[in-house]
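Go through this one:
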Amino acid sequence: MTTAQQASDDIRFMGRAIALARDRMGQTWPNPAVGCVIVKDGEIVSEAATAPGGRPHAEEQAAPAAGDRARGATAYVTMEPCGARSSGRTSCSHFLMDAGVSRVIVAAVDPSPFASGRGVERLKKAGLQVETGLLAPEAAVLYEGYLHRVETGRPMVRISADGAGFDARFAASAKADLTTELKRLGEAGYTRVWVSPGELADALAEQGLLTL
């Protein structure tokens, strides 16, 4: 396969992984929606997205589903596989390593305590070829809320007409302590919530709590 053909395939398969994750947006909190596509000899042998409720993760579904076909395959993952799990269970990195995947393409690096480069590092130490950043701008919407909560403790708030792809609608009085209300939602695991245009949206914007 030529370098140009490989690059074209990488973009196509990562695009498929992103599409899988987008279909799960708003259903996987407190975890981000992640897509994983495993490819062998130019053909998809398995694919998965984070399950509703946040578990099981995409990799822990896709790797076992690929079976022996995962050996020597490439995994396209929209977010860095976790290097450890809060539950102590097998990490996503280990699922890929144990399956025999030889190459992992990652769109976005995960800054959470259970990844933060550790997933990529573990994969590389195990001898896997790892590349990061492919279609990162296209994948950004998948994690904007999750990353916002990691950084601020609050879910991201955006204006939406119908709330599609959001975790929930943010309902509060415009006169309430909005920062505190959002912190409570963050503690509950919400990552991305929506409001309609109006008084509440205006109050959030005035306090720097609305993402435009």
In short: The first strand starts at residue 35 and ends at 40. The chain is about 40% helix and 20% strand.
